[in-house]
Amino acid sequence: YTPTLHYTPTSKLATWTGEKWLELYPPMHTARSSPGVLTMGDLIIVSGGRGADGKEVDTIEFLNIKNKKWIQSNRKLPRPLSHHHMALCGEYIYIYYWYNGYFWRMHKKNFMASLTNNAVYHWEQLKNATEFSSLLQYSTLPVLVGPDGIFIFEKKKWTRISKETSYHYNCTASLNGTTFLTI
């Protein structure tokens, strides 16, 4: 199942200055709505989303914020996705699809190598997670916060670390390694 939320795809990036929105960077190659986004050092990585035709896409592109150039990656998502979460936890990049709990990872070194060359590295599909949650970075391990509680992924399995729940599953952010904010 794919949620049918409707947003207008855009290729523009906007930066909040504290007073107003500015377009400081060039547009992406692909207009998207509801992509997964991850920052890693000087890179902004944008993956998936819904394209101008309304269909989910599996492409990944990244922006080097120093030289302000977008590069279309050779790397693809494990399947077309939108409304997904990405997180860098320890040595791995994780992708979580909140609607059905699909969960993948790739070592960040392999991910970076596959961004610009034809190296073949595959996403490792892991045990599905609880649905309707937010993927957060917790120290070096991924954490899900949602309506079924708080779960941590360790030793290739999910463990509930709290029965406390959050019904604001798409409005959760990690403030640091041990504190979450839900809105």
Topology:
Layout (H helix, E strand, L loop, with lengths): L14 E2 L4 E2 L13 E5 L2 E5 L9 E8 L4 E13 L2 E6 L2 E6 L4 E6 H9 L7 E2 L8 E5 L2 E6 L2 E6 L2 E6 L9 E3 L5 E3 L1
Antiparallel strand pairs: 1-2, 3-4, 4-5, 5-6, 7-8, 8-9, 9-10, 11-12, 12-13, 13-14, 15-16
The first-to-last residue Cα distance is 26 Å
In order across it, which strands form the biggest sheet?
3-4-5-6
Q: How would you characterize the largest beta sheet?
A: 4 strands, antiparallel
Question: What is the strand content?
Answer: over 45%
**Unreliable segments of 5+ consecutive residues:** none
If you compute it from the alpha carbons, what radius of gyration comes out, rounded to the nearest whole angstrom?
16 Å
What is the residue-mean pLDDT, rounded to a whole number? 82
User: What is the succession of H and E elements?
Assistant: EEEEEEEEEHEEEEEEE
Query: What's the shape?
Result: globular
Total count of helical runs of at least 4 residues: 1
Number of E-state strands: 16
Q: Given the helix and strand composition, which structural class is it? A: mainly beta
Classify the helix fraction into a percent range. under 10%
